[in-house]
TrEMBL record:
This is Methionyl-tRNA formyltransferase. The gene is fmt. It holds the Pfam family Formyl_trans_C. Its EC number is 2.1.2.9. Residues 211-309 form the Formyl transferase C-terminal domain. (6S)-5,6,7,8-tetrahydrofolate binds at S117, L118, L119, P120. GO terms for cellular component: cytosol. It is an enzyme of class 2 (transferase). Residues 1-188 form the Formyl transferase N-terminal domain. Keywords: Protein biosynthesis, Transferase. One of its GO terms (molecular function) is methionyl-tRNA formyltransferase activity. Belongs to the Fmt family.
Amino acid sequence: MRLVFAGTPEFARIAFDALRAAGHEIPLVMTQPDRPAGRGLKLTPSPVKQAALDAGIPVAQPRSLRLDGRYPDEAAEARALLEQIAPDVMVVAAYGLILPQWVLDLPRLGCLNIHASLLPRWRGAAPIQRAIEAGDAQTGVTIMQMDQGLDTGDMLLERVVPINADTNAAQLHDALALAGGEAIVQALNALAQGGLTPVKQPEDGVTYAAKLDKAEAALDCTQPAELLERRVRAFNPVPGASIRLPGLADPVKVWRAQVVASDATGEPGSVLRADASGIDIATGSGVLRLLELQKAGGKRQPVDVFVRGWQPG
């Protein structure tokens, strides 16, 4: 296949590498413009751009693909590039730009998206985190024929990935990225042989994975301990769950926690006990034990180290 690859973060980079390893021709990569990163806010290329440059593949970084949008010259330049390349298919993975109809229509076989959920569950921006937060036992990747809707296109292939009781978002991201790379290679092989049958998404079971908001990081201890524990895992590493503890002016990041059986009770958010085995927090229902924490400006610490330097007052 002659492909154009459109993607930006590490999730997409894994798929890009899989496609190259499978021998597909990729004459162009499209990715988001470089963004400020790090303490010096230095302009930094995306993981996909860096991988493309390392492979000697040309990169395009339009700020928009809408010919009638804010950057029509950049969109027109991108269209000219794509028309010149005449790709069989465009593979899209966490690209970050909306594809207008002219892009969807340009490749001979259309545009295929690698989406990190089992559609129609968790359409939208944060399917990995929302699946953990909701307590789903499994998720996966869907290879989808793109249309102009929000993750509404016909499904071509799915791969199931389990979510274990201790799986966090970083771990699930990596598992889904690998599954996505394998799935897109399998899908393209089948597509080349005419062996893929599009399946319309069912109307039942549609859910939307809202974009993560930093305001969600603060744990609301009036909620049940089970939900709070899932949020700790769902928000690891971004945006990172946080909680206020007595004796500390700033919220503390919580990187690992567990629900424990306890007869102790108290006002939600109060500390029931604290020792080297954990810090037990009263919640709206049950007890949440904090196991790995990070003070503002500090490093992640297991709870036995954290409590030695904590003066709750």
